[in-house]
Each structure stands twice: as C-alpha cells, then as structure tokens.
Write a structure and sequence with these properties.
alpha/beta, Rossmann fold, two-stranded parallel ribbon, 11 helices, globular, binds nicotinamide-adenine-dinucleotide, binds 2'deoxy-thymidine-5'-diphospho-alpha-D-glucose, dTDP_Gluc_deHydtase, dTDP-glucose 4,6-dehydratase activity, lyase, EC 4.2.1.46
C-alpha cells in the first residue's frame, strides 16, 4: 500500500491518523474532506505537501469520489457526522453523510476493486448496565440508541452486505471514545478543558454517572494501521484500551490537573436517550493481530491533551464561541 485515500482526514481522528502515517510509515495520503464545521485545514498544517494532498469534496458525490478511489490502493473511511447532540436536533446530515456517503464509497470500491477499511463506533451496540462486568464483543447484537449511532449501524451493515454480495475487500473497526489533540470543542473532554481555560465552569449532563471507555487517538490509529495491514478481509475488530471512567470522574480529573477545585462544575440538562455505559473487549485485535495500546494510563494521556489545548489556543479559539452559543440554545 503506497497511496491511501483517507476520508474525513481533516476531522479529529482522521487527522490524527494522517499525522500517525506521516511519522511512522512512508505512504502518501489523499484526504477527501468536505470541511464541514468539524473539519479544519489547520489540523493538517506542517505535513509534507509531497505526501499529503487535501481534496475538498463530499463523499456522497460519486463524480468526486470515483477518480480518487480509482487511484488509491486503499480507502480508510473516517468521514461522518459524528456528534450525538447534533443528531438529536437535526438528523438529516447524518443520513446523507453516514449512509449515502458510505454507499457511494462502497460502490466505488466495488467498481475499482479497492481495499476498504470502515471506521465505526462502539455505539452501534447500544449501552450496558452500570457496574456489571459485561463488555461489547464482535458478536454483540446491534442496538443503536441515537440518530447518530443508528446511521453508523446502517453504514456497518452496508459494508457487510457489499462484502458478502459483491466481494468488496473490506474490514470494519468499532472503537470506543477517543481523546487527544485536534478534537472539536463540542466534544466532552475538549469542551471542559477549554471552558476551564476560559474561566468557565465545566458542564456535566445529568448526574454524570454515564461511563465511557476512553482511548487515545494515537492508539486508535495504530489499531487501524494494524487491521489495514494484517486484518482478515470481511472481519470486524473492536478497538478499546480498557479506559472506563464515569463523566464525573473525568471532569474532576480535568479540574484537578488544571489546578481548580475538583467540585467546580455545574450539572446541566441531560442528553435525551443518553447511553449509560460503553465498554470494549478488544481481545480479538490483541490476540489475533498482536495489537496493544501505548497509552496505558488515561491520566497520562489526559495530561498531554490538556497541555495541547493550553498550547494551541489558535487552533480551537475560532470554534469556541459558536459552539457554546449552540449549547446555550439547548440548555446544555
Ligand atoms: P469529526 O466530526 O471530528 O470529523 C469528521 C470529518 O468528516 C470532518 O473533517 C468533516 O469535515 C468530514 N465530513 C463530514 N461530512 C463529510 C462529507 N459528506 N464528505 C466528506 N467529508 C465529510 O469526527 P471524528 O470524531 O474524527 O470521527 C471520525 C470517525 O470515527 C467517524 O466515522 C466516527 O463515527 C468514528 N468514531 C469516532 C469516535 C470518537 O470518539 N470521536 C469513536 C469511534 C468511532
Ligand atoms: O463511543 C464512541 C463515540 O464517542 C463516537 O462514536 C462519537 O462520534 C463520539 O462523539 C463519542 O460519543 P459520546 O456521545 O460518548 O461523546 P461526547 O463527547 O459527546 O460525550 C461524552 C460523554 O460526556 C457523554 O456521556 C455525554 C457527556 N457530556 C458531553 C458533553 C459535550 C457531558 O456530560 N457534558 C458535555 O458538555
């Protein structure tokens, strides 16, 4: 594999993947990204122009997609509408990008015989009870809760159908909650870090007892690179780093790390249909493909992430005011 097409490569996890490839491999990358509110050219700044090209376009536009897929050795498909809260207020773009966009890419992969890796989420499995040892595995039944997660579930099923019916050479990965640099300030961890930097109290939905299974974006990237190179075609791999924490603990950790009182946060109105708990069993990826995360301690990764937002205000500042006014309208 010499030339990769990375969709959504100007977003959070996609741009981290492109940085990872530049540092650890010799592949060249074409990024296809629509630069929605969530995409940011600045996330790709400083990367070698002879190895990274950004094409601004829509994954649901076959006229844009087809020639790019024809030239690529593989597609790594990150592009999506990704925020649950947005999907609760305007689901339409989620259907267009997550379902029709994935369909458009799959048709191109089928036409040109191109290897396809689909990036998905643990949210397709719904949620788990608090305080149980149960975790998601590759055979957990799909039970998505939100418009976002149901469109991601639909996209996974399209990939499976294109493998079975048309022989598309695809793999799927379902990962847990990512954190790290270049994450949009609408998301939980960067929202709270940048609030504290602005002297604003963090906002916890409901009681804050919901649990997420945190993984650093670099560990997600190494897992995707492993699956792309060594994964079995047609298979699904779950990606997680045993990072379960409830939201209250995360907010208290951020406040403490940033020199504030641990209880200096506010409770705000809860998210509709809020999933209680996610937890990933990544045994298949670890035992069959030999993958392991490098960030073994969430606290360590969180500290470097806080430092990144502290040092990169120019990157997040332009998005902050508009994001917070959207939340004010929602009472969150
Ligand atoms: P993000 O919102 O930060 O980035 C999405 C990117 O896709 C943006 O750059 C945006 O401009 C682009 N995009 C949106 N619609 C497009 C379209 N129609 N055509 C081309 N580009 C388009 O999202 P993220 O958090 O980086 O998530 C990336 C992928 O990883 C998604 O598929 C998401 O479902 C999946 N995922 C995310 C997490 C997480 O914790 N954030 C965890 C597991 C899986
Ligand atoms: O599990 C993987 C998923 O993780 C991805 O598929 C999604 O794309 C990604 O956005 C993320 O979804 P969540 O809904 O879990 O992430 P979010 O950052 O929106 O919220 C994390 C938790 O924090 C969730 O329980 C809601 C809560 N929350 C969020 C915000 C923005 C708060 O308590 N306060 C907040 O201000």
């Amino acid at each position: 594999m010499k030339n990769l097409l990375v969709t959504g490569g100007a977003g959070f996890i996609g741009s981290n993947f492109v940085h990872y490839l530049m540092e650890r491999t010799d592949v060249s990358v074409t990024v296809l990204d629509k630069l929605t509110y969530a995409g940011n050219r600045a996330s790709l700044e400083g990367l070698a122009p002879e190895r990274v090209q950004l094409i601004v376009g829509d994954i649901a536009d076959a006229a844009v997609v087809d020639p790019l897929v024809e030239r690529a050795d593989a597609i790594v498909h990150y592009a999506a509408e990704s925020h649950n809260d947005n999907s609760l207020h305007d689901p339409r773009p989620f259907l267009d990008t997550n379902i029709t966009g994935t369909y458009t890419l799959l048709e191109a992969a089928r036409r040109y015989g191109t290897r396809f890796h689909h990036i998905s989420t643990d949210e397709v499995y719904g949620d788990l009870e608090l305080g149980t040892p149960e975790r998601f595995t590759e055979s957990t039944p799909y039970k998505p809760s939100s418009p976002y997660s149901s469109t991601k579930a639909a996209s996974d099923l399209l990939v499976r159908a294109w493998v079975r019916s048309f022989g598309v050479r695809a793999t799927i990965s379902n990962c847990s909650n990512n954190y790290g640099p270049y994450q949009h300030v609408e998301k939980f961890i960067p929202r709270q870090i940048t609030n504290v930097l602005d002297g604003v109290r963090p906002k916890l939905y409901g009681e804050g007892l919901n649990v997420r299974d945190w993984i650093h974006a670099d560990d997600h990237s190494s897992a995707v690179w492993t699956i792309l190179n060594r994964g079995e075609l047609g298979q699904t791999y779950l990606i997680g780093a045993d990072g379960e924490r409830n939201n209250r603990d995360v907010v208290e950790l951020i406040l403490t790390e940033m020199g504030q009182a641990a209880d200096a946060y506010d409770h705000v109105v809860d998210r509709a249909g809020h999933d209680l708990r996610y937890a990933i069993d990544s045994s298949r990826l670890r035992t069959e493909l030999g993958w392991a995360p490098e960030f073994e301690r969430f606290e360590q990764g969180l500290r470097t992430t806080i430092a990144w937002y502290h040092d990169n205000e120019a990157w997040w500042r332009p998005q902050k005011a508009a994001t917070e006014s959207r939340y004010v309208e929602l009472g969150q």
